[in-house]
Amino acid sequence: MRATIHSYRRPPGAGTDPAGILRAVVADGAEPAGAVVVEHLSGDEGTVVAFWPDEAERPGRVHDLVDGFDGAAAGRTPLFAQLTWLNGAGDPDVARAAERGGRERIHPVVRDVDGLVGVQVFRSPDDRIVVLGLATGVETLTEVRDRIASTPLLPGEDPALLPGPDRTELGRVLRADVPTAVRS
Asked: What is the pTM for the complete model shown?
């Protein structure tokens, strides 16, 4: 499964119809296999994660699903999401370190957080990473961040290769249509 990630700004007075937002950001009229539409809590901006089959050719930066897991609230409707962008410089060593830290250090300590629906990790061919976390409440995402921050590094993890996120966005989920192929 692949994903394209689109930012949007909602015009003043416009509604929050997720289907309309999706149509606006996927301008070529193609129908994705699913999508998560997130309205940022900080204003009239948002992010759409559109899911595509592996064979689908898409314009722009395309991210491949490289990791993911179901959380303690798998199967429940996510109400909030956090998007985290990592490795904006595209350093392959940083990308490998982030993936290892995610799988071996972070997943085990957050998997059982009450309210966590799931996490998907996407990596572009130029080694940029986007993490999508879905939850039933904002407090769940706060608990996830707190657990990550308090988790010691694994033996052999190099802090220089783990500079932290380039950007994070917290928002309300307007639509969450996540294909089965994306979920663990």
From this structure: 0.93
